[in-house]
Amino acid sequence: MYDAVFVNGKICKNPNMVLADDFYFSGLNKPRNTSNPLGSRVTPVNVNQIPGLNTLGISLVRIDYAPYGLNPPHTHLRATEILVVVEGTLYVGFVTSNPANPNQKNKLFTKTLHPGDVFVFPEGLIHFQFNTGKTNVVAFAGLSSQNPGVIT
Q: Residue 72: which pLDDT band, with cuts at 50, 70 and 90?
């Protein structure tokens, strides 16, 4: 008999019952509907979509942006994010918080990314992405947690 074991709040499957599908997700090649007030859509691939990610410390998202679409300021308290632009032009940035030196101010770091460019958002810092162009943008991001969470 195998008793259910919870790790990171998720049930670990009986090793004798694990399937290839526990490590599989299909469809990130398909554009998502960005017809919403933000003009963007995030497609997550984390432990909720791939149970085999539990305890592995990684996840992925696809982000589609309509022209002038925005992924609004948000943070991931459990993950650093590394983003790569595949198509289009994307303005990205993050803000430091609670500087150790009282004489320092919070600082904004921004960059305009083009296809093939990569940008890192450190864990816990507020960050955003904005499509500055007249064409769609597609980006992929890896996160250093199987369940990074998001707070907008």
A: very high
**Half-sphere CA count of 46, side-chain side, radius 13 A:** 20
CATH topology of domain 5-143: Jelly Rolls (2.60.120)
User: pTM value?
Assistant: 0.90
Quickly tell me which residue has 């691939």 as its tokens: 45
pLDDT recorded at residue 132: 95
Cα four-point dihedral sign 33, 38, 40, 41: negative
Using an 8 Å Cβ cutoff, are 130 and 67 in contact?
Answer: no
The structure tokens listed for 120 are 């890192």
Please tell me the distance from the alpha carbon of residue 85 to that of residue 92, in angstroms, as a whole number.
11
- The domain limits of the chain are 5-143
Question: Which two three-digit tokens encode residue 87?
Answer: 């198509």
